[in-house]
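Quick entry between incubations.
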Amino acid sequence: EAGVAQSPRYKIIEKRQSVAFWCNPISGHATLYWYQQILGQGPKLLIQFQNNGVVDDSQLPKDRFSAERLKGVDSTLKIQPAKLEDSAVYLCASSFWHGELFFGEGSRLTVL
Amino acid sequence: AQSVTQLGSHVSVSEGALVLLRCNYSSSVPPYLFWYVQYPNQGLQLLLKYTSAATLVKGINGFEAEFKKSETSFHLTKPSAHMSDAAEYFCAVTLEGNSGGSNYKLTFGKGTLLTVNP
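Done. Structure below.
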């Protein structure tokens, strides 16, 4: 069974530029999550989708971050414009049942 | 609100020694608890989970954890450390009332980095 796919794995941009990350969840998983993991910290939930609807985006900085999940399958997370403090690993996860989140390998963003 | 506290951001053990990683939770209702492991440059992988069945939970790679309600703890242990256990470990919690369905989400601790010395 294929796992959660994310791309790109690494991205370096300058502040005020934009960046987009893509995630394809495990087939059949209705719930998709984007987490931000800053170095030395645990993952922080940015946004949660159930199928193509947003369930929780309370910690998403909506002035610069946006995410969509068209057709309830893959998802894109965008940052525009990026700030230095956005340097982090962006983890996508999907789940079918009871907290067994399956994570992708992450997209590491460096903002210079 | 739910939260977890992982005591010790870095734990160092010798190969063959006992591994003990501490996690305490705060929850107003019975929680579901999880341990995840993250190897360098990889995503998180589920080690084990407690979902209100047996309080002693066995996971992969010889790890186990015991849910102690009186101590609000869910410490992770392994009798004998192996070099391959070196990684970062995250404790996570969600509320039983949120299990399944659209409101299900995990809150993670800050992580404990485990190093294993030869």
